[in-house]
Amino acid sequence: MEKRQSRSRQRKKIQKSEWEDWLEPCRLCPRDCGSRRLSGGKGRCGVSALLKVSRAALHLWEEPCISGTEGSGTVFFSGCPLHCVYCQNRAISDGRAGKEISAERLGEIFLELQGKGARNINLVTPTHYIPQIREALDLAEEGGLELPVVFNCGGYEKPEALKLLDGYVDIYLTDFKYMDSQTARRYSHAPDYPEKAKGALEEMVRQCPEPEFDQAGLMKKGVIVRHLLLPGNVEQAKEVVRYVYGTYGSRVYISLMNQYTPFPELRETYPELCRKVTKREYNSLVDYAVDLGVEQGFIQEGETAGESFIPAFDYEGV
To answer: Is the pLDDT of residue 2 over 50?
Structure first.
């Protein structure tokens, strides 16, 4: 394993009282709900300030440069600022499931994942816990954590909050779901998503301006933008690819996903989402990206929507 330099000197130190100000009233995500989470109130994310984790284990289903052959050390946090109607992790995204833990325990989990051979620490849906994660990373690095840190998020972020992660996060693995505000309103109740995702991506690239890899081809630093193709949304998906590639070129990797899985309960309100993405739709998007000149990226092959990319949220490793 390649040991990295300590990043403590690159970090902006903040007092605990200062990061508590982000949580009460809460202003960590673009919802700006103002919930008093330190006092036990739940934000739009569905959780209070208490860390809530549903799983911490090695995960092989990320992009190859993230998972490698040993697996990514994924920590699945409960709650989510977005609540997309088609969310594949809906079992935990509403904030009801999960085990409450301390920042000290989270730091221990990071070290345990490192001991199991994880190639990185992969924070899944972490936006609403940024200050607590900082504290846990400080503790873990004091205990010998040497792995790259991945911030695996939905793209609906505030640049001001992301700045708190400067010097803590090595890789941003972010969604870019929509370029159309009406679609964002319908499926994620967030008409400002396109604007917020653009600003967030700009800050992510500022922090990680060029991709870096180790000798095994695993990413050490960089930004990967994911787009999950929704049925009937090929043209909007092309707009996302056009914006990301046109703005950042090869500085950002683009991951095009066809693993959308329809849920029966969507049939009445969102009938257009009650089918899988067709091969024709996905191939059209991939061909467009290639014709545009995208070379740094990932595609999915096979009937991924027929496979289970949803792990058991059984508190493993928590």
So the answer is: no
The contacts of residue 109 (CB under 8 Å, 6+ apart) are 53, 56, 75, 101, 317, 318
Report yes or no: 222 and 210 within 8 Å, Cβ to Cβ: yes
What backbone phi and psi angles, to 5 degrees, belong to 279? -60, -40
User: Could you count the other beta carbons within 10 Å of the beta carbon of residue 82?
Assistant: 26
Residue 148 contacts residue 170 (beta carbons within 8 Å): yes
**Residue found by looking up tokens 């604007």 in the block:** 195
User: In degrees to the nearest 10, what's the CA dihedral of 152, 302, 249, 59?
Assistant: 20
SS3 letters for 204-251? HHHHCCCCEECCCCCEEEEEEEEEECCCCCHHHHHHHHHHHHHHHHHH
Residue 94 φ/ψ, nearest 5 degrees? -80, -5
Whose CA is closest to 305, among 263, 258, 266?
Answer: 258
Single out the residue of 144, 297, 156, 146 nearest to residue 222, CA to CA. Answer: 297
Dihedral sign for Cα atoms in the order 99, 103, 106, 108: negative
Q: What is the pLDDT of residues 91-131, one digit of tens each?
A: 899 888 899 999 999 999 999 999 999 999 999 999 999 99
Pairing outcome for strands 51-59 and 121-124: unpaired
What SS3 state is found at 127? helix
pTM here is 0.94
| Contact call for residues 83 and 93 (beta carbons, < 8 A) | yes
- Contact between residue 264 and residue 273 where contact means Cβ atoms under 8 Å apart: no
Which residues does 44 contact at the CB level (< 8 Å), separation at least 6?
A: 29, 31, 33, 35, 81, 83
What is the C-alpha to C-alpha distance for residues 83 and 72, in angstroms, rounded to an integer?
24
Please answer whether residues 133 and 126 qualify as being in contact, where contact means their C-beta atoms are separated by less than 8 angstroms: yes
Number of CB atoms found within 10 A of residue 259's CB? 20
